[in-house]
Amino acid sequence: MFIMVIMVFANVCLRFFGSGFVATEELSRILLGGLIFTGAVVALAQGRHIAMPLVIERLPLGLRRLVVLAGGLLMLYCDWLLVAGAWAQVEINLGSDYPLTGLPQSIPYVTGTIAGVLLALVTLYKLGRMLMGRTAPERCFAADDEPATAANGDENRLEKQARGFES
Question: How far apart are CA 75 and CA 131, in angstroms?
Fold first, then answer.
């Protein structure tokens, strides 16, 4: 992100003098794709994606496992779609280069393929932990530092913050 900001800022400054880096746009596009995919993998590994634990916690244990397993299998299918589609684009764009930098146009799709594989590995790891009984179903894809909800007998994080403002 820092590199992209520096490149774009330098390019804007240089445009005042009638010049600039011609490859900035291509490099920014490549780096932004990599940044987005890296963020998606890290967010899944840390349990930071949007989830609906309130609904899952209200289900009986057997149904909780089934719902989380079904969700995990859907995630694996989406990961497979990402890998297959990105790899198809790698093969299509393998002979093409960006006009200004000369870099292969398949680079963003290679990052998509790698991200899809990593997302699938994280999903399999989390599902495996749940199926072996090491993680409760409602905590399977949740953040590790996230407090338990009121359904488990603990206070909600917002309630704790509100109490802190009252004192």
Answer: 16
Reading the block at residue 71, the tokens are 């969700």
> Cβ neighbours of residue 58 under 8 Å, at least 6 residues apart?
151
pLDDT band at 87 (very low <50, low <70, confident <90, very high): very high
CA 4 to chain centre: 19
DSSP-derived secondary structure letter, 150: G
Alpha helices in 47-156 (DSSP H): 53-57, 61-93, 107-131
Place of tokens 């399999």: 124
Extract the tokens encoding 73. Answer: 């299998």
Spatial neighbors of 110 by CB under 8 A, at least 6 apart, are: 86, 90
Q: What is the pTM of this model?
A: 0.77
3-state secondary structure of 97: strand
State how far the Cα of 90 lies from the Cα of 80, in Å rounded to an integer: 15
Higher pLDDT, 57 or 88: 88
